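Private note to self, pasted from the team thread so I don't lose it. Backbone tokens:
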């Protein structure tokens, strides 16, 4: 009983386990392995139409990222997450029960808005909690643990999603909404860390002050600009393929619907391995050493998926998840240590904004290429194109690298 009471009493110490539990439930999304199959079967969509629907989702997220990030920095990271959880939970229920396709688009947009209220705010709250505990230098370690636990949640829900989807695709959405309701209650239990004042004025910034300081920091720091670009580009191909194109690709090479959950599990296990290995890899080869190696791993994984049009190609594609999982905590640490404390959530939202605008453009491009040519050719084109872009960013970033 004392342990339960201590867990329910808001404190910075209890923030850590509550935050981890909330994030695991928030990411327990049974519908992710089957959502493309669900809307294609219900509304008869082509892959191009699916990617345009997906693109609208990413564009909505991109347009609302910075405004909602500034909300978190202005009025509180906890409050922002609570608003986001309520919106996201309702949108998933609407997605499942929508009788006509336009309502699916509405649900998609609401889900995107809900996510943006959470995105950035959650990691800023974790960082500030560690700061209050005198552990901010341990952020990469805690972030790696969080990432590993979230990946376990995603992996388990992916397998269950495939199994439940064989019985009822709609049920995957309803069960997910139930898990998110419990996660919403956990958010209420979090203790909000105090806001840091602006370093120039010594006062708490208002909404427009947050926006001004955010873009001022990006404008004045080329190292921060290239870090944001690199952080957005690295997970781009892996995310687009895994979320939207892996399901039809797996079906095209002859795998059953139930196998989609197993594939999702395998990809998440690769990410889990990367998250647990991140600290050891970075200590061995250093930050810049990994930043140079990661794009090569990404290139090999994406190209292999197109060249080996089989399960073997999917196995090699899992390398992209490993590389992204190692890179994510490192890039967040690099970005956060170059960011004024008063605008951490907003800067992380800018990172998400860049990523989602890129994803909104990449998805339809891959969809069109797959409809006119084939998915394997589209995968090869993505791997080659992104490889060149990331190489250019690295060359420019290296010139202003300050470690």
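Design output:
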């Amino acid at each position: 009983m004392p342990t339960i009471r201590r867990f329910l009493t808001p404190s910075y110490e209890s923030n850590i386990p509550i935050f981890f539990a909330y994030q695991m439930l928030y990411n327990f999304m049974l519908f992710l392995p089957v959502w493309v199959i669900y809307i294609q079967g219900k509304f008869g969509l082509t892959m191009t139409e699916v990617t345009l629907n997906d693109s609208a989702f990413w564009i909505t997220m991109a347009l609302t990222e910075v405004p909602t990030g500034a909300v978190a920095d202005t009025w509180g990271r906890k409050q922002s997450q609570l608003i986001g959880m309520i919106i996201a939970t309702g949108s998933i229920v609407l997605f499942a029960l929508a009788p006509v396709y336009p309502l699916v688009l509405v649900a998609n947009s609401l889900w995107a808005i809900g996510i943006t209220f959470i995105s950035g705010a959650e990691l800023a709250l974790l960082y500030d909690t560690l700061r209050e505990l005198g552990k901010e230098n341990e952020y990469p370690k805690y972030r790696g643990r969080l990432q590993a636990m979230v990946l376990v949640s995603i992996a388990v829900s992916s397998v269950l999603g495939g199994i439940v989807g064989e019985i009822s695709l709609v049920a995957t959405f309803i069960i997910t909404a139930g898990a998110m309701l419990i996660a919403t209650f956990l958010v209420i239990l979090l203790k909000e860390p105090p806001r840091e004042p602006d370093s120039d004025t010594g006062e708490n910034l208002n909404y427009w002050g947050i926006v001004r300081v955010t873009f001022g920091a990006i404008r004045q720091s080329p190292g921060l600009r290239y870090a944001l670009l690199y952080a957005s580009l690295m997970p781009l191909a892996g995310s687009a393929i895994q979320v939207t194109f892996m399901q039809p690709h797996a079906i095209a090479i002859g795998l059953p619907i139930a196998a989609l959950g197993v594939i999702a599990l395998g990809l998440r296990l690769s990410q889990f391995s990367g998250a647990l290995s991140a600290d050891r890899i970075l200590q061995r080869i250093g930050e810049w050493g990994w930043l140079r190696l990661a794009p090569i791993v990404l290139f090999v994984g994406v190209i292999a998926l197109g060249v080996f049009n089989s399960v073997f190609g999917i196995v090699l594609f899992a390398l992209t998840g490993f590389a992204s999982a190692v890179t994510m905590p490192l890039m967040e640490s690099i970005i956060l240590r170059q960011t004024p404390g008063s605008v951490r959530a907003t800067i992380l939202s800018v990172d998400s904004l860049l990523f989602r605008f890129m994803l909104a453009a990449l998805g339809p491009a891959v969809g069109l290429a797959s409809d006119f040519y084939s998915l394997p050719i589209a995968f090869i084109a993505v791997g080659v194109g992104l490889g060149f872009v990331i190489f250019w960013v690295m060359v420019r970033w290296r010139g202003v690298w300050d470690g």
